[in-house]
């Protein structure tokens, strides 16, 4: 399967390239930061400056025009699709059962203030105790389960506000 890369230019234009398309480019390194490219019989001079290899952000000068470029590989794309990007402001309000099981303990009630990491409840599944913790600071809006309740996967357990 061919790997795909998404390239975002100047935070506005997005392109997708396969490894095969990248390999088909005729590139020649002319110095440490300079390249000569041929694409569809057109010639381009490129200079890479301000490279951030860790985050795959680059400023590239092509034929006297400067572009800000961000390259996302397949893992970056998957993380974005899952809403787990760094700086993501997605807020979790519903605590759901990660698996079917039995509620052994409920440590909070409606109106309780909780801090990120506080123990909310204990769920027994496959003879193992799983402690569910608060994903963020907040207030418990409702608790939909009680001790000894049997729950199914993805069943709502606690709602936060």
TrEMBL record:
Gene3D superfamilies: 2.40.50.100
The organism's taxonomic lineage, starting at the top: Bacteria, Pseudomonadati, Bacteroidota, Flavobacteriia, Flavobacteriales
Name the record gives this protein: Acetyl-CoA carboxylase biotin carboxyl carrier protein subunit
Keyword annotations of the record: Biotin
Domain of life: Bacteria
Pfam families, sorted: Biotin_lipoyl
Annotated InterPro entries: Biotin_BS (IPR001882), Biotin_Carboxyl_Carrier/Decarb (IPR050709), Biotin_lipoyl (IPR000089), Single_hybrid_motif (IPR011053)
Residue ranges occupied by any Lipoyl-binding domain in the UniProt entry: 79-161
Entry keyword annotation includes Plastid: no
């Amino acid at each position: 399967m061919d790997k795909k890369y998404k390239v975002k230019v100047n935070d506005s234009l997005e392109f997708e390239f396969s490894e095969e398309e990248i390999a088909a480019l005729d590139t020649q390194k002319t110095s440490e930061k300079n390249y000569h490219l041929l694409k569809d019989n057109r010639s381009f001079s490129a200079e890479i400056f301000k490279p951030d290899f860790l985050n795959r952000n680059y400023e590239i000068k092509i034929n006297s025009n400067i572009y800000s470029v961000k390259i996302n590989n397949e893992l970056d794309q998957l993380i974005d699709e899952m809403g787990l990007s760094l700086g993501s402001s997605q807020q979790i309000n519903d605590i759901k059962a990660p698996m079917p099981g039995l509620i052994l303990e409920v440590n909070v009630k409606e109106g309780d203030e909780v801090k990120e990491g506080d123990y909310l409840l204990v769920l027994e599944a496959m003879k193992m105790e799983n402690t569910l913790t608060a994903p963020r600071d907040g207030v418990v809006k409702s608790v939909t389960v009680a001790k000894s309740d049997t729950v199914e996967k993805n069943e709502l357990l606690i709602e936060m506000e």
